[in-house]
Amino acid sequence: NAGVTQTPKFQVLKTGQSMTLQCAQDMNHNSMYWYRQDPGMGLRLIYYSASEGTTDKGEVPNGYNVSRLNKREFSLRLESAAPSQTSVYFCASSETGTTGELFFGEGSRLTVL
Amino acid sequence: GEDVEQSLFLSVREGDSSVINCTYTDSSSTYLYWYKQEPGAGLQLLTYIFSNMDMKQDQRLTVLLNKKDKHLSLRIADTQTGDSAIYFCADPGTYSGGGADGLTFGKGTHLIIQP
To answer: Closest to B99 (Cβ–Cβ): which among A42, A50, A58?
Structure first.
């Protein structure tokens, strides 16, 4: 029972490098999300996708792009990484019309030097 | 924008009750949630309460909702070392005014258990 799977789990980048975080869910959920978690800041929404083919900005979208590749997959791309993007990134999914519960992946720990 | 506030730390003795408090600003929420995050892991839903309820009890967990004051609390009875985690209060997001906008989370309360 995989749920939400994120890759990679750990990554170290140099300033200016690019990378893509991958996320896949096997629960047939319509909605998917990317959050970042920073000490003392809680979780902040970066982007979300309410359904396949749509994406919308959340609270902190600057410096990120997303792609909803299909119903299962939602990727987050950093085109030119900055030290301020050092964080733990969480992907989540949910089914609309239910209690709104979000199901989270285990997180991807990114360090930008 | 909306806001969810909770204290950052709570320290309790093993066996005592823990009470974690949260205030929120969005009065249109249908559900309010408590999530638990253990070290190195993602968040997992602990419990939720429907907005027309004042209280929900589930084994050692009691959730109280005061809609007038926009105050939510989570009580953990007989706190154990395994309850040591970060607890997040969450409210449905309103980034685009409705639909599957995700949840707005508080900063999280670190529950520290003293032996």
So the answer is: A50
Helix (H) or strand (E) holding A13: strand A10-13
Interface membership of A57 toward B (CB under 8 Å): yes
Residue A16 backbone phi and psi in degrees, to 5: 95, -15
pLDDT in tens, chain A (113 residues): 679 999 999 999 999 999 999 999 999 999 999 999 998 888 999 999 988 889 999 989 999 999 998 999 999 999 999 999 999 999 999 987 677 789 999 999 999 99
Q: Max alpha carbon distance in chain B (Å)? A: 46
Bridge partners, residue B36, by sequence = B44, B87
Residue B3 has pLDDT above 80, yes or no: yes
Cβ contacts of B102 on chain A, cutoff 8 Å: 31, 33, 35, 45, 48, 58, 92, 94, 102
Q: Is residue B12 within 8 Å of residue B111, measured between CB atoms? A: yes
